[in-house]
Amino acid sequence: MSTAATLRTLRISRRAADRLRAGHLWVYRTDLEPTQRDEPEPGALVTLTDSRNLPLGTAMYSSASQIAARLISRTPALTRTQYLADLRTRIDTALALRRTLAPTTADNNAHRLIFSEADNLPGIIADRYNDLVLVQLLTQGTAQDDVRAVLVAALRTAFAQEHCGLTIWERPDPRIRELEQLPAPAPGPLFTTTADTIAPDGLSFRTEAQRDIDQAAPSTTTFTLNGLHFHYDAASGQKTGAFLDQRVNYAAAARAVSASGHTGRAGDRGLRGLDICTYQGGFALHLAQACTHVTGVDASRAALEAADRNLGLNPQLAARCEVEWMEADAFDYLRHLDTLAHATPTPDNLFDVIVLDPPAFAKSKRAAEGALRGYKELNLRAIRLLAPGGTLITNSCSHHVALAEFTEIVAAAAADAGRRVQLLETHAAAPDHPEILTLPETRYLKCLICRVD
Q1: First-residue to last-residue Cα distance in the chain
Q2: Which of 14, 287, 370, 447 has the most CB within a 10 Å radius?
Q3: Domain 81-225 class in CATH
């Protein structure tokens, strides 16, 4: 970045300035004062000022995103060199925190290492899957080689302390990459212990020839969550179905079903579970620890094939539980089951535990109203399909739908179903996905565990 770009200032509205002073970190494009002259370079560091020209700190500018600037420091006029030094300190702090919040063990060797704004590292996400680390550089200011070098050096140091292999792949979210107008990442890994070719200063990256050699670096692994095994493929272009933010909720679901005291459909055939939007089987495989029959439903055949492969990695589950996969739309399938159950109201048409884990319905504030209707229908159908004493595990990952709103929707579904629903547990994302109290966007995942009379 040029010095000129570093020293640029952006004046923002009073509303935006008040929001930053209250602890938020984002400035939307609509918050920029219209009197700005030349636009900063994409990814440049800029000093933010309020309408009185009082400095608020240094931010990273985006020429493409609706989030025009992300605050990275309360210190104004921060240089790129100073930012990189702060970056290394913050990465080390985030990695040290994960050793406390989510220590690597034989039963859990996958977790989020860096969570963007939640770790004071806007635009950077890193997830660990055993010996693979997947990095997302999600802004114009972080998708730079100097940031990659600092990140790789910090991860190498951290993994060297564990004396284990490490391969780092850059895999940005395609939608975010499009919104930020970022180039596609290079095809090879950023680093691998199978071919360490990064210069000692940590600033020189591979030549094209070296990247060709690196194609032999591992891109797949098997990782463990709560003692269960899952497959991960960094080259698949999709997120893993064993979502790391659900790790604690997976375990809580299995524990709640085991402790429910419910004896199952006719009292002698065990517990019957249904996992709606199972994706690659995260909840379904955990339910199989407590149930004798589990059905995982998803609209994606590829996801279900991955779920079945994950089941194969856990033969102890198949030995005690019948697990089947159903390719279907969640709404259509629940309507079908609801119609069937009320046409023939027998125990065989009801379930002892139902998990609802749909994708984010509300990706904007304008979509929140429609999202609430979708959550209402899913929960209403599920409550009607549960046997008396059954367990409902219902989730929302839409940050535009607050916990209070989500809870009210489930309550309304219970009232419409004419069922008494007890809220037993409320969960959020796993501790390695910390929330920032002044940044509500980091409070996105809600998980309610309920008993349905």
Answers
A1: 62
A2: 287
A3: alpha beta
